Amino acid sequence: MSLTVNHLSCLMGGRLILENIDGLVARPGEITALIGPNGAGKSTLLKGIAGLEHVAAGSRITLDGQALGNSALAPRAEHLYYLPQQLGSSSALNVFEAILLARRTRRKESGRQGLYRVRDMLRALELEEMAERPLATLSGGERQRVALAQAMVREPRALLLDEPTSALDLHHQLQVLDWLSRRAQETSTIVVMAIHDLSLAARFAAHLWVLKEGHGVACGSPGDVLTPARLREVYAIEAHVEWPENEPPRITPLTATRRLGI
Amino acid sequence: MTSVTPGTTHRVDSIDRYLARRRWHLLLLAGMTALVLLTFLADVAIGPGRYSLGEVFSALLSPGQATDVLAVVVWEIRLPVASMAVLVGGALALAGAEMQTILDNPLADPFTLGISSAASFGAALAIVLGWGLVPLAGTLLVTGNAFVLAMLATLSIWGISRLRGVSVQTMVLMGIAIMFFFNALLGLMQYLASSEALQQLVFWSLGSLAKASWGKVGLLLLSVALCTTIFLQARWRLTALRLGDLHARAMGIDVGRLRMTVLLCCSLLAATAVAFAGTIGFVGLVGPHIARLLVGEDQRIFLPMAALCGALIMSLTSILSKTLIPGILFPVGIVTALIGLPFFVSLILRSRKELW
Fold it and tell me: Which domains does chain B have, with CATH numbers?
């Protein structure tokens, strides 16, 4: 029971964005973090898994043992949900309507079941006070929390999050990720999350996938993956890595190994 | 079912608020329907022939007992015109509402995207040169041409959208290019036209409900009913488009196919309306905006509200065009713009909500 990716390649406009990504596994009930520098192909990989980007023949993606391939969007979106990084919306839809919409595009249901689920999400993410505000009036962070509520209200089997905390302040980053990891555990959901903040990744993810320039570099537990040598190889930085007992890991970037300049 | 943590009190219950808001929207919808019905009846009651309200309504309810002249005036002239006004307004507003939705652009409507210009050029071909694009009898020559060219204009926007990597912005720009292209051709036709044909052409391009008939009303009703059904079936998917393409696709929506279906429906609506009533701007743009101000963008409510707003505007316009100066029938296209625009601008400035 898991999400697996094997031999996945992805071509866009004749350019190879992902090349033979192999042996990735994401298990239910825990967060798998997808890390790597800009342009490594993190978003493309998530979109490829979600079926939003065409993957090359021979790529093999399975969810709970079932091969997904390039299957049609609609049936796929019942089990998988990709949360985009860019949430461009100037819509007059209000927060409640937007979350209900996410629910209704997933399943037809009568009665108030859907409404209750929407309210649960609003309360869980402390959004109920702004339930009637149009999306266009929300701040970036509020919009991101609404998007997360939209994702969770669909109750997907696997959730693919593209930098879900990029617009959040420190308080909300910790709060949201803590909630997400508890929800994943309670509902036994597979969560794969692209994220830039390595400390957050180390703290909340049980498993890491590392990408660089379209290649899979490493795959394993944070302790195995996040070593100074690996960070130098992947990010070209010198970093200080600490794993204190009974405390969250500390990853402190020190310097970039290459400097800009003429 | 609910997951309220014990001990916490919630100042608002979002479900209650949501349901209250929905009730209010349904009430608005009912009110708007009543208003349209009222203006429709007023449109039937008012006209150059000085009949009293009682006479008109008794002719409506029991046509057998009215005098022949009155029965003809009410049943063959005023009712088709009034029905046409409501349907043309509804059709243009529906087309505008969905074009704005699928093209993600608040300025999209059949007029700004060149569909009306194309239709005018088609009409000009018939009026000035006597060319018919469809094998039709004389009276429908103008209508047939207008319809064919309006469909052609939309299909070319759609055709462009099929090319790889074409964004909705490109589609909108394409529409604007089409508008300029057909306006230039229309200008050429006007330059070539005899003074008699020119007068006819100008009259047509200003929009008119005067040539309404039951046949046209029936055809228009058919296309409005068909497209409304298709739109309502796609109501959640259309609402999801407002979140952006990627987000909508992530929800499992085939965005390209939805856009194509809806664009074809819009072209049918706009082409039928313009072919029968000439170019009428403003309604397709403004009807949806007023609806959005009133009820937001949940398509379940927004869609019927946009149609009703369009119907109300055209129905009021039809009344005004008869009553502004008694004895003179103004072209409806002029009235919508002159009377409607200041009203619309004041509405936008007053609300100042971020609508787009």
Answer: 28-40+51-351 (1.10.3470.10)
Which ipTM score applies to this complex?
0.91
- When CB atoms are compared, the residue of A105, A122, A124 closest to B251 is A105
Residue of B nearest to A103 (CA): B251
- Residue-wise pLDDT for A118-171, tens only, equals 999 999 999 999 999 999 889 888 999 999 999 999 999 999 999 999 999 999
Q: Does B15 touch chain A (CB under 8 A)?
A: yes
User: Given phi > 0 = left and psi -120 to 50 = alpha, else beta, which region is B28?
Assistant: alpha
First-to-last alpha carbon distance for chain A, in angstroms, is: 52
Q: Quick check: B334 and B203 in contact, CB under 8 A? A: no
Tell me if chain A has a CB within 8 Å of the CB of B239.
yes
pLDDT for res B80:
94
- Identify whether the C-beta of residue A21 lies closer than 8 Å to the C-beta of residue A8: yes
Closest by CA position to A100, among listed B149, B102, B236: B236
- What does the pLDDT look like over B317-350, one tens digit per residue? 999 988 888 778 888 888 887 877 787 787 777 6
Task: Kindly determine whether residue B244 and residue A120, on different chains, have CB atoms separated by under 8 Å.
Answer: no
Question: Which chain B residues in 293-312 lie under 8 Å from chain A, judged by CB atoms?
Answer: 296-298
The alpha-carbon gap from A251 to the nearest alpha carbon of chain B, in Å, equals 33
For residue B75, count other CB atoms closer than 10 A to its CB: 16
Q: Does domain A3-79+156-256 have CATH number 3.40.50.300?
A: yes
